[in-house]
Amino acid sequence: MRTEELISMLATNAEPVARGAVRRRLAVVLVAGGAGAFALMLAWLGIRPDLAEAAREPMFWVKLALPAALLVTALVAAARLARPGVRTGHAAEALLVPVGAIWALAAASLASVPGEQRMALLLGDTWASCPFNIAALSVPAFLAAFWAMRGLAPTRPAAAGAFSGLLAGAVGATAYCLHCPEMAPPFLGTWYLLGMAIPAAAGAIAGPRLLRW
Amino acid sequence: MREREDQLKSLLLRGLAGEGAAYEAFLRELGAILRAFLRGRLARVPDEVEDLVQETLIAVHIQRHTYDAGQPVTAWAHAIARYKMIDFLRRRSIREAVQEPLEDDADFLASSDEEAREARRDLAVLLDRLPDRHRLPIVFVKLEGLSVAEAAKRTGMSESAVKVGVHRGLKALAALIRK
């Protein structure tokens, strides 16, 4: 088949294309991934019983703001990476803002207590399970994000996979906030970030394999 | 350069809105640009240029929903062309050429080449290798120009199965070229 024939074949009966494919697919990721993470958290872990009291403390909202800020950053980066020829801007640097903020809070909180109490702030009661719970809650959004990316055209599959994974991790961590009793910044700055880094790393590895087109 | 971009963009936007003739003109212009771009970079494998032009045109078509009207067409098409070229070079393990410096979108637009050579892989032959659920929708809708409804009647498939068959079939065709 000559190229000329291919071109007329492609153009024959080409249907009008709906606008906003990237936005629509990412909306599905948020809705399906968010609902999946929330349902999983409810069924498997349960909402913390003192949620109403905890919500009166500013630290509860700071804790929620950490995954929320990473979620927004990852969402913007994923939307850019999904389209050929769009620069990602400063997505990676933007991640340093919430991470730097929680680390600053963590340093202040560690400095404010005597040395022997610092380990308790860092480890809390649940450090051993926290990252894995967050990673597990991110699975629905991870599947949805890879479905979304596979229907789009990322030209940098490792980066697209990493930000898709981070997006999923942030969705999982947001849902986990409603269960998890920990409130100390050193804990959040370590185990929450680790929990979100697990799906991000998995995404970076899976991207080049699953996102080729 | 500006003019060329504006012209391509207007053709593509009209094409995305469903104007077949504008879309065909867009693909023809882009095909010539792709040919010049790839010929300049694949001087060592001149016989494969036309195949890659065809593969890239199919990719542009399949991915046309990722174009955003706020973005220069040149940047979008250039990124697809680079992606397909690098993928091709990796497949052939031609390493040194991948290290090429990033060039401007303006350079991408600068030249075009309308003299198509023969492609080595014949898409018509590859098409025969697709399963009926992909092949028949492409033959009826894209080659014979029947409407989706008519193609559905002829094949006994549902209209949505015909549409899906065209889309998946083109993807499968692109995958066959890559082999």
TL;DR?
The complex is a heterodimer of chains A (213) and B (179). Helix content of chain A is 72%, strand content 0%. With 213 residues, chain A is mainly alpha-helical.
Write the layout of secondary structure elements.
The complex is a heterodimer of chains A (213) and B (179).
Chain A: H1 3-11, H2 21-45, H3 51-54, H4 58-81, H5 91-94, H6 96-111, H7 118-123, H8 130-137, H9 139-150, H10 157-176, H11 185-210
Chain B: H1 2-16, H2 20-41, H3 49-62, H4 73-91, H5 105-110, H6 123-128, H7 132-143, H8 148-155, H9 159-178
How does this structure look, described?
The complex is a heterodimer of chains A (213) and B (179). Chain A has 213 residues and is mainly alpha-helical. Chain A has one domain. Chain A has 11 helices and no strands. In chain A, helix 9 packs antiparallel against helix 10 and helix 9 packs parallel to helix 11. Chain B has 9 helices and no strands. In chain B, helix 3 runs antiparallel to helix 9. Chain B has 2 domains: 109 residues, Rna Polymerase Sigma Factor, Chain: A; 56 residues, Arc Repressor Mutant, subunit A, CATH 1.10.10. Chain B is globular, with a radius of gyration of 17 Å. The longest helix of chain B is centred in the first third of the chain and has 22 residues. Chain B is mainly alpha-helical. At the A-B interface, helix 1 of A face helix 2, helix 3, helix 4, helix 6 and helix 7 of B.
- The Cα radius of gyration of chain B reads 17 Å
Under CATH, the topology of the largest domain in chain B is which?
Answer: Rna Polymerase Sigma Factor, Chain: A
Q: What's the total number of strands of chain A?
A: 0
Radius of gyration of chain A: 20 Å
DSSP strand (E) fraction of chain B? under 5%
Describe the largest sheet of chain A. Answer: none
Structural class category of chain A = mainly alpha
What is the residue-mean pLDDT of chain B, rounded to a whole number?
91
Helix content of chain A: over 70%
- Work out the count of structural domains of chain B: 2
Which regions of chain B have little confidence, pLDDT < 50, spanning 5+ residues? none
Beta-strand proportion of chain A: under 5%
The most extensive interface between chains reads:
A-B, 30 and 54 residues
Number of domains of chain A: 1
What's the mean pLDDT score of chain A? Answer: 96
